[in-house]
Specification:
The protein has 465 residues and is α/β, with parallel strands linked by helices. Helix content is 29%, strand content 17%.
């Protein structure tokens, strides 16, 4: 057994084991409640969570609005109802044990409205808010208003310093902990900075040590740090536990809770997790958020990769460099590409990729007519699920647009994540996972396809394995 001392988090002593929140109906109240009941911190997602009616039936998400703005407001209403539903389920399952947190993304649509809507209706049910994907400056103020602890998710000491200087120093009493999410190992969206390379991972220890040094310099020496991303066996982290250099540390598990009895992902998804190999999960830049994200390679991701590979630069007027005309659009208007790209263009057209779609970067991608029709439909059907979307050019600001062209190299993330969360294909949708997910197939705990309860998983984690 690993010697795990309890930590005081969100107003109570709990095991330093945190369930990582996974959005779009993946981290539910059932799983979060079970994690809290076992003595840790359970986390349900407030990112478009499933709402239930009075009889416990799933409320289908059907958008009736004719405009993006109308659908955006509908989405926020659904999200608030879903967050309230999952908070109540988690509270009932936890039975007063552990602590319960809600996870949100700052870059999701209407993050502030959703936080206010859920927290105002769930007083006493939610003990903490974890929030990343952006710089959530107003998180502390909102959480404090409802007497709830806040847990910013950062990937560097520098990011926390910026948050502290701008806003958090005013609300220090309700800072529960700081979540360090490793940008190379965590699942979902990752906080790589512009100066960091996706293909050059860094050791998390010096980065967390730098975060602890920053916290000490701000008078926050006793504030716990939650290590997130790449955490599987605690035996791998023995030198972090009770380490005076790092101070109080808890560990967040985002991927392992997917494979439990309480996890409500599909059986096909669970079976897929057991077959993954090292290298099947990697960072990609296709997300409409503009962030890198970590996902499993499948047909969906391969299609996005190949779509971007079928791409050439162009100009609307010919020049010495762009001297080769090709027809664009239904009217066959000419655009000009470089002569060196013509052979590839002709090959792509022979393979059926005959439709050209412009990107915001003065390039065109080549897709099939059917792919083009689906991309355009998804862009038109946009429900404004993000604060700003690369794929559809939606923005929740007054203008309703980012001011850039919609990007056909990306995809509707809401559509795909809703699909896979509710039984859709694990091959034809985005499948987020942490980089350690391949370990399901190597860990003897899951031998012969064994799927534990949350309690069995936490008991196993406490052994160090």
């Amino acid at each position: 057994m690993i010697n795990l001392n309890k930590l005081f988090l969100s107003g109570k002593e709990v095991l330093p084991l945190v369930e990582g929140g996974k959005g779009i109906a993946v981290s539910t109240g059932l799983s979060a409640g079970a994690w809290a009941k076992a003595g840790g911190i359970g986390t349900f997602s407030g990112v478009n969570a499933d709402a239930h009616d009075e009889d416990g039936n799933l409320i289908p998400v059907v958008y009736k609005g004719k405009t993006r703005r109308e659908r955006h407001n509908e989405l926020i209403d659904y999200a608030i109802k879903g967050g309230i539903t999952q908070a109540k389920i988690a509270h009932d399952v936890a039975s007063g044990n552990g602590r319960l947190h809600m996870n949100v993304l700052w870059e999701m649509a209407g993050a502030e409205k959703i936080l206010h809507g859920v927290l105002s209706a769930t007083k006493g049910l939610v003990h903490g808010i974890t929030c990343g994907a952006g710089m959530p400056y107003r998180l502390a103020e909102i959480a404090t208003k409802y007497n709830v602890y806040y847990y910013p998710i950062v990937s560097s000491a520098r990011a926390f310093s910026a948050l502290w200087r701008r806003a958090y120093h005013k609300f220090s009493d309700m800072l529960g902990a700081v979540v360090y999410e490793d940008p190379w190992l965590a699942g979902g969206h990752n906080g790589l900075s512009r100066t960091e390379r996706a293909d050059t991972p860094e050791d998390p220890y010096p980065r967390v040590k730098a975060l602890r040094d920053t916290l000490r310099s701000l008078g926050l020496a006793a504030t716990p740090i939650i290590m997130a991303g790449g955490v599987w066996h605690l035996n791998d982290w023995k030198n972090w536990i009770d380490n005076p250099e790092l101070g109080p540390v808890a560990f967040q598990f985002g991927t392992r809770p997917l494979l439990t009895q309480e996890s409500q992902i599909s059986d096909a998804w669970k079976k897929k997790l057991l077959t993954l190999k090292k290298g099947d999960i990697y960072l990609n830049k296709f997300s409409p958020t503009g962030f890198y994200s970590s996902a499993v390679e499948n047909d969906f991701l391969i299609d996005l990769k190949e779509r971007s590979e079928r791409q050439v630069s162009f100009e609307v007027e010919g020049s010495e460099t762009f001297n080769t005309p090709i027809p664009f659009g239904n009217r066959g208007r000419l655009i000009y590409i470089q002569e060196k790209d013509l052979e590839n263009v002709n090959d792509w057209k022979k393979q059926g990729y005959t439709t050209l779609m412009k990107t915001p970067d003065n390039t065109v991608v080549f897709v099939t007519p059917e792919q083009s029709a689906q991309i355009l439909k998804d862009q038109i059907d946009c429900m404004g699920c993000l604060s700003a979307c690369v794929f559809s050019n939606w923005s929740q600001g007054e203008s309703g647009t980012t001011g850039r062209k919609a990007d056909p190299r990306s995809f509707c993330i809401q559509k795909s994540l809703q699909s896979i969360a509710h039984g859709g294909s694990v091959d034809d949708n985005l499948m987020f996972a942490g980089h350690g997910a391949y370990r399901f197939g190597q860990d003897p705990f899951y031998k012969n396809g064994f799927i534990p309860t949350v309690k069995e998983l936490i008991d196993r984690i406490c052994t160090g394995e």
